[in-house]
Design a protein that fits this description.
By secondary structure, the chain is of the alpha+beta class. The protein is built from eight helices and 21 strands. The longest helix has 14 residues, at 51-64. The protein starts with 12 loop residues before the first helix and ends in a 7-residue tail after the last helix. Bound molecules: fe (ii) ion. Residues 109, 111, 115, 150 line the site of fe (ii) ion.
Length: 346
């Protein structure tokens, strides 16, 4: 049984005033809020963002705001539990849907937060990251880690949309968030996605391995999907058909703070996820999936996104009896593990 503690109003007002004058705060009236019993009380709420609903609003932003007035034309997927103005999906994750129209260019910059993008629709756009031109196709994951130069261009004739995922809320909270602008990059003849095109083998020039912290910047969806299908076929009894995006040289997480995964649900499959400390984001790439988060149910259709707070019970169900469903997941696992607060209760 957790004991009730004294309240602020139990203290004489002249004593409270004397404390405030010295920039002092009594701990006991606030202790249960910052150290609740049993489990955290997250501000992050289960939240769902419909792509069909946001798409016309994003295209309207393309009419209302020219690129030079936006720099990055993004509608932020904000979690009401954190207050919409704070632009957070969870404690550490930021999500934004970005629109690039034909012929537009989002100028080069770099910044302290890590970013990735998952391509949602459109063809012939690209992100140049440190001189490497990464083409953008539906479902591809493109990394722009902390302090890497990046810019976006578009050579096609239809709008291109992608989902940005950043650790911005965390870096901002740490008062370490800022950016630097730069000149347009020259494109270099490097292709990390081709260098690491095959699993289990890596280049070894002069018997040495590449020491770059981010040797691979574009992870094609075609490869992730093929890996999931092969995994499901090879292991018919496997419950959780999932792959993690990693640094192919080290096998470690692709980025330092957030984790990225691709998942397949077999036809008709219901999958109960372990209850874990990190918040998690689900983005639907193919099929239709019901997501149940602590009793709140969302149906994800193509390109829909939802967020579950940490320590919540999450169940996924493929709505199709005939076809597999495919999801992209992002979470805060690398951060929790590095800080020693990671927990899995199942
Ligand atoms: Fe950026």
């Amino acid at each position: 049984m957790t004991r009730e503690l004294g309240r602020l109003e139990d203290l004489p007002s002249d004593y409270r005033d004397a404390l405030a004058k010295q920039n002092l705060v009594p701990l006991w009236p606030n202790l249960r809020a910052v150290l609740p019993p049993g489990k955290p009380q997250p501000k992050t709420r289960p939240t769902y963002w419909s792509y069909a609903a946001l798409r016309p609003l994003l295209l309207k932003a393309g009419e209302l705001t020219p690129m030079e007035k936006a720099e990055r034309r993004v509608l932020v997927l904000a979690n009401p539990g954190h207050g919409l103005a704070n632009m957070q999906a969870s404690a550490a994750m930021y999500l934004g849907m970005q629109l690039l129209l034909p012929g537009e260019w989002a100028p080069a910059h770099r910044h302290s937060p890590n970013a990735v993008r998952v391509i949602v629709e459109g063809e012939s756009a690209y992100t140049t990251v440190n001189g490497e031109k990464c083409v953008m196709r539906r479902g591809d994951l493109i990394l722009t880690p902390s302090w890497q130069w990046h810019e976006h261009g578009h050579e096609g004739d239809q709008p291109v949309v992608w989902l940005d995922i950043l650790d911005l809320p965390l870096v901002y909270y740490m008062e370490a968030s800022y950016h630097v602008d730069g000149p347009r990059q020259s494109v270099l003849p490097v292709r990390g996605d081709l260098t690491y095109a095959h699993g289990g083998i890596v280049p070894s020039m002069s018997f040495e391995r590449d020491q770059k912290p981010y040797p691979m910047l574009r992870y094609p969806w075609s490869e992730a999907r093929a890996a999931l299908v092969a995994l499901a076929e090879n292991q018919p009894d496997l419950t959780m058909v999932q792959v993690t995006y990693v640094n192919p040289e080290t096998g470690g997480d692709a980025q330092n703070i957030l984790g990225y995964y691709a998942q397949m649900l077999r036809p008709d499959q219901t999958l109960k996820l372990p209850v874990r400390s990190p918040a998690i984001v689900f983005h639907l790439i193919e099929g239709a999936v019901d997501v149940n988060i602590e009793g709140e149910r969302f149906t994800l259709a193509d390109a829909d996104t939802c967020c579950a707070p940490g320590y919540s019970a999450v169940t996924l169900q493929n709505r199709s009896a005939n076809a597999p469903a495919f999801l992209f997941l992002a979470d805060e696992t690398p951060l929790h593990r590095k800080l020693g607060v990671f927990e899995s209760r199942d």
